[in-house]
Design brief:
Radius of gyration of chain A: 14 Å
Number of helices of chain A: 0
Order of helices and strands of chain B: HEEEEEEEEEEEEEEEEEEE
Shape of chain A: globular
Largest sheet of chain B: 4 strands, antiparallel
Oligomer: heterodimer
Shape of chain B: globular
Strand content of chain A: over 45%
Structural class of chain B: mainly beta
Number of domains of chain B: 2
Largest sheet of chain A: 4 strands, antiparallel
Strand order of the largest sheet of chain A: 3-4-5-6
Order of helices and strands of chain A: EEEEEEEEE
Number of helices of chain B: 1
Strand content of chain B: 35-45%
Number of strands of chain B: 19
Number of strands of chain A: 9
């Protein structure tokens, strides 16, 4: 959740009820609904949403403390994510000119 | 970028939990709104390049999107489908992986309307390998697909809405083994349910029914993704309640939301965390992230992380 300093706080819980702050995301994504999922041993966070609100792009982390930006080749607001067949597939939205946007699919093979 | 108008379920502060910002939920809300006017199937413009496709509301049969592409390198994202034109808002929607591969919904709002986001057209795309995508027909009895799910048997389930004679809409679900032939299934879900999220956990699927003008949030459990049972109803008797996010994992299920005490004249928001190991017995914790600043209340996200949970 977005803090006063604009960073995004990352909270941890062992039981889903009692939470402690574990760190914060330096990239300061906006605190709106987005995509946040566990992919194998990693977390993937896209703080914006597919209506191109909030911060585009996605970050991954293996510990919830250190985050790396994922590279999609364009500024993507993620919409949804699915895994299967050794692939991770995301849908997303890319802002176009003239008040239009494009829908896309991006694929990544499991490492 | 032009602003997209808020969905029809936007609420006034003090009467229910307002949508602080547009969110992914707006897509589903907009789907409910457009059911009454019907939807067309965006089709391909053959003049465009294979990977850059222009949608058109003209009806036609399913068609192939592009030739097969090489597999993506491990660890790198590769764009494999791109739907665009200069006059539409196109939004990537729900996706799932099932018995015939990936199935994805693309949403298109044309810009012909003078006010609001315009009319919605949806298209359904299928890919066996994530690389090459074919447009397949929408479930013919379904005006709008809100969410796709893969049932426990690998079949696809499309949740959406049908118009009713009273100018409202009702939730319906269709099942398909291949993403092309659909049969309606009786789910047990209330017709007014707005499918906000579906998560998988140790007791099966948890469906979050979002707050609407007709209902408070609800939680439903299903062992197979087809037959659902109401396990919790967030009755808005003492608090106005809105769900932000939910997830399932090794440790059970967690739902994060916001609430306002109806007795609080200042209408102060607070987050709450709602957790269950089995999806049936739930425990609540108010203000799990400390006292909430009131000038901006972000929507929380939650994900399982092994046996634990993370919330940014």
């Amino acid at each position: 959740m977005t803090q006063d300093d604009g960073r995004t706080a990352i909270w941890f819980s062992a039981n889903g009820l009692d939470w402690t702050q574990r760190g914060s995301l330096v990239s300061a994504p906006f605190g709106t609904a987005g995509v946040f999922v566990e992919l194998g041993t990693e977390l993937l966070l896209s703080p914006g949403n597919s209506f191109y609100e909030g911060t585009p792009g996605a970050w991954s982390s293996s510990d919830g403390i250190t985050w790396q930006r994922e590279e999609f080749g364009s500024e993507v607001w993620l919409g949804d994510i699915a895994q299967g067949g050794g692939l991770t597939v995301v849908t997303g939205t890319v802002n176009n000119a003239n008040f239009s946007s494009a829908a896309g699919v991006w694929v990544k093979a499991a490492e | 970028m032009g602003e997209v108008q808020a969905g029809p379920q936007s609420c006034r502060r003090g009467t229910c939990i307002p949508c602080k910002r547009m969110s992914k939920h707006v897509v589903a809300l907009a789907l409910i709104a457009v059911v009454a006017v019907g939807c067309g199937d965006p089709q391909l413009d053959p003049s465009t390049s294979p990977s850059r496709l222009s949608p058109s509301p003209l009806p036609s049969s399913s068609s192939s999107a592009q030739p097969s592409q090489s597999a993506p390198p491990a660890g790198a994202w590769k764009e494999t489908l791109f739907l665009t034109d200069d006059h539409s808002l196109m939004v990537g929607g729900s996706i799932t992986y099932g018995s015939a591969g990936f199935l994805m919904v693309s949403n298109l709002w044309d810009r012909t309307a003078e006010v609001g986001p315009g009319q919605l057209h949806q298209s359904l795309w299928r890919s066996s390998d994530g690389m090459s995508w074919d447009e397949v027909g929408m479930p013919p009895q379904l005006s709008a697909v809100a969410q796709l799910l893969t049932a426990s048997d690998g079949s696809y389930v499309a949740f959406g809405y049908q118009p009713t004679q009273d100018a409202s809409s009702r939730l319906v679900a269709f099942q398909s083994a291949d993403g092309t032939h659909w049969d309606e299934v009786k789910t047990g879900l209330a017709r007014t349910t707005w499918v906000q999220a579906i998560e998988r956990g140790p007791a099966g699927f948890l469906l979050v029914g979002g707050q609407t003008s007709e209902t408070g949030p609800t939680l439903w459990l299903s062992p197979d993704g087809l037959a659902w049972e109401l396990v919790h109803d967030f009755k808005q008797t003492t608090h106005w309640i809105k769900i932000d996010d939910a997830d399932g994992g090794e440790g059970g299920y967690v739902v994060i939301g916001q609430q306002i005490d109806q007795a609080d004249g200042d209408n102060r928001y607070e987050h709450f965390s709602f957790a269950s190991a089995d999806g049936r017995h739930w425990f609540n914790r108010s203000q799990p992230f400390g006292r909430q600043a009131q000038d901006f209340v972000p929507e929380a996200l939650v994900s399982s992380f092994g046996p634990d949970w993370m919330a940014p």
